[in-house]
Amino acid sequence: MRILSIGAALATAATVAFGQTSGQEIRKLSLEECIETALRHNLDIQIRRYSPEISRYSLKAAYGAYDPSLSLSGEHQYSLSAGGVDPQGRPYTGNESEADSFRAGVQGLAPWGMTYSLGANVTDAYGTRPSFAADLTQPFVVTNSFQDITTGNTLSYRSTNFQSVSIRSPFENSSGSMGALSLRQPLLKGFLVDSARMQIFLDKKNVEISDWDLRNQIVSTVTAVEMAYYNLIFAQESVRVQEKALELADRLLLENRKRVEVGALAPLDEKQSEAQAASSRADLLASQGNEDTAQRVLKNLLSDDYTKWSKAHVLPTLALIAVPQKFDLQESWQNGLRLRPDLVQQRISLEKQGYIVRYQKNQILPQLDVVGTYGHAGSSTEYSGVFNQFSTGDYPFWSYGGQVTMPLSQTSSRNSYRAAKATKEQIALTLRQLEQGVMIQIENAIASVNTSFQRVGATREARIYAEAALEAEQKKLASGKSTSFEVLRLQRDLTTSRSSEIRSLADYNIALAQLAQYEGTTLERRHVNLNIR
To answer: Per-residue pLDDT tens for 268-298?
Structure first.
């Protein structure tokens, strides 16, 4: 009955192991295939790919500051004023006028900072206004006198005058200007650097930053795929190690039971063997669970639709090996300082802040502008006459001059400039800190790679010695010169040595991947060509 129960236990373990892959699609993938799949389907990369596109749209929007604007307007005006009495006591009527005005213009900003406007306007005014005339129907007599200076006699005469009355006279007048060009060019504040040009410069740098940010995400994803791939290999190899451990434990249990039945072994040794078998079975189940987790970690990196991968069982085709590498610390430092995306992004941020400092310094200067206008005017009683005068250009007008605007206090501008300089110094120090951190990261990574490679050799030797020790102890047990306790201990040591060996192999390859990430050479190492634009 005991032998049957052991067979049932082995059958159950086989059923559990088989159940993990039954009904699943087996996908044998190399590391290169996993990286290629991740580059096409990883969600983190897909999300980050939008950043350069958004930055380029923002840059194109910044160039909109130089788009000219067209304005058109039309207006009708009416005015009526009250009458009154003039200083001579004559009453007069009020004005009544109407006017139609039309305007058109184009204005904008030139890339070198000059503002311009080109416009035309025409106005047609018409209505009535007061005038005075003699009223011949209402005469009156006026007596005038004067003294003759030669005789001293007073002479007089009578004259007839007519009353002056107020009447309304119609009028119409058209006037306007054509080709009225106005220019304003800054010579100090706003010269060569202004808010529009600053925004364009910053947006250009943001495009570069977003490109490097995408590169950084791709590097991180490729490194994560490598680590997940090696961890999956380790998990699967761990399952095999635990399967061998369970096989050894069950074999020893069967042998001990036979010895107990014939009286060659104490029952306590059988219980120890049963405990070891149960422990090995639990370790196998834990390893299978770790493999399932490692499967999901890798599949998450490879997919943008997990439903297509949920039933897939990935089998890596790459074997865990340790290829010795030689490293030049100075060369690794140079690669890291030159290629690390985060360092490049920080340097671009420093350039951005340098331009902001330049802009803020320019804002301290007084406003000195050269201004000028040129156009043609016209005036007539009709629209047609005005336009004829425009075409002949008989009435030009122009002006030129300068304008200086100097604020009495520069508190805002000067403190903004000081804040921009302080921010630039802060970014520069942060860059130095990052560079130093990268150098330490690389040095630590090289040391980790070397240590991991040495561990590979040491764990391999430990595994070989453990295998030899177990084999010798099993022979001693068969001849009655050893105990099950010693054999069980050596079995556990062998399982630990095998696990340590595959862990060291995985750690060595993971350390190489991390070193490449710290150096910024991941894409070159994996022959990944990027064409972000």
So the answer is: 777 888 888 898 899 999 999 999 999 999 9
Computed over its alpha carbons, how large is the radius of gyration of the chain? 49
pLDDT value of residue 156:
55
- The closest alpha carbon to 216, from 111, 113, 345, 89, belongs to 345
Q: Three-state SS string across 438-497, please?
A: HHHHHHHHHHHHHHHHHHHHHHHHHHHHHHHHHHHHHHHHHCCCCCHHHHHHHHHHHHHH
Return the number of other C-beta atoms located less than 10 Å from residue 247's C-beta: 15
Q: Does residue 81 contact residue 95 with C-beta atoms inside 8 Å?
A: yes
Other beta carbons less than 10 A from residue 353's beta carbon: 20
Q: Which of 272, 275, 280, 225 is nearest to 248 (CA)?
A: 280
Identify whether residues 250 and 388 lie together within a single domain.
no
Distance between CA atoms of 496 and 508, rounded to whole angstroms?
18
Which residue from 187, 170, 105, 92 is spatially nearest to 132, judged by alpha carbons? Answer: 92
Picking from 364, 64, 69, the residue whose alpha carbon sits closest to that of residue 200 is 64
**Whether residues 493 and 506 fall in one domain:** yes
Tell me what pLDDT residue 10 has: 34
Contact assessment for residue 394 and residue 177, using Cβ atoms and an 8 Å cutoff: no
Which two three-digit tokens encode residue 476? 């001693």
pLDDT at position 461 is: 94
Task: Give this prediction's pTM.
Answer: 0.79
pLDDT tens-place string over residues 469-495:
988 988 887 777 877 778 888 888 888
Give the amino acid at 411. Answer: T
Residue with tokens 């200076």: 149
Query: Residue 470 falls within a domain, yes or no?
Result: yes
Structure tokens at 506: 């995985």
Give a yes or no: residue 531 inside a domain: no
Indicate whether 154 pLDDT > 70.
no
Which residue type, as a one-letter code, is found at position 33?
A: E
- pLDDT of 466 > 50? The answer is yes
Helices (H), 25-87: 31-41, 43-62
Q: Closest Cα to residue 178, out of 124, 108, 103?
A: 103
Which pLDDT does position 313 carry in this prediction? 94
How many domains, in total, are found in the chain?
Answer: 2
List of residues 6+ apart from 175 with CB closer than 8 A: 122, 123, 125, 377, 378, 379, 380, 386
Domain shared by 349 and 495, yes or no = yes
Confidence of residue 517 (pLDDT cuts 50, 70, 90): very high
Which of 16, 424, 45 lies closest to 242 in space, CA to CA?
Answer: 16
Residue 19's pLDDT is what?
A: 44
Q: Is 219 helix (H, G, I), strand (E, B) or coil?
A: helix
Strands 25-29, 312-316: pairing kind: parallel
